[in-house]
């Protein structure tokens, strides 16, 4: 709304509100800076509430948002707001950055995998898929120490192959489902775990929408419309505009 408001010139605002000095130059600058600070939050909030975003998108998007805020030039009026938002992001979401599940989800999302494994310090993360995959029922059978060692080496090799493959231009544009469907036979364990973890939505918004629609359909006033309710609905319908 603020962004739309700023699209009007001072002359246009004077015509709309029929008076002068609707907004001063400093107020306009403040609003423009506020838009720069908040538009990233608006974009990401809108994106992750759709059905197409899993928890694999959370950490990369948070990382991108913090980089965008950090790279903003020094603001005249909203600098403190920017710093407070950065501090709030660190405080509220630091637990996600240390979460194995969220890190693995980001790594198994082809679009972001390379940017989430960039140093040797991430080598311990590469070993975690073996531990996590054992949660799947078909891998719960006991195995010998030698077999476990071979399985770990094999999985690390497949993981390296996966990281090399995702850098290819033909794969970068594929969504999660298309990518893992294409390579499910190449990396069976990774594909199984990706299917297991990337089906978790980024937020509960899509689930809440289902219950909201279901509640609207099944609420008592819908299932048992009395004469009074019917009359009120007709009245509201005809007076909608």
TrEMBL record:
Residue ranges the record marks as coiled coil: none
Molecular function GO labels: protein dimerization activity; zinc ion binding
Localization: Nucleus
InterPro entries: HATC_C_dom, RNaseH-like_sf, ZnF_BED_domain_contain
Statement: the UniProt record of this protein carries the keyword Metal-binding: yes
Primary location class: nucleus
Keywords associated with the record: Metal-binding, Nucleus, Zinc, Zinc-finger
Ranges of residues in domain HAT C-terminal dimerisation: 174-239
UniProt KW Nucleus keyword: yes
Gene Ontology CC entries for this record: nucleus
Top-rank taxon, per record: Eukaryota
PANTHER family the record matches: ZINC FINGER BED DOMAIN-CONTAINING PROTEIN 39 (PTHR46481:SF10), ZINC FINGER BED DOMAIN-CONTAINING PROTEIN 4 (PTHR46481)
Protein name (Swiss-Prot/TrEMBL): HAT C-terminal dimerisation domain-containing protein
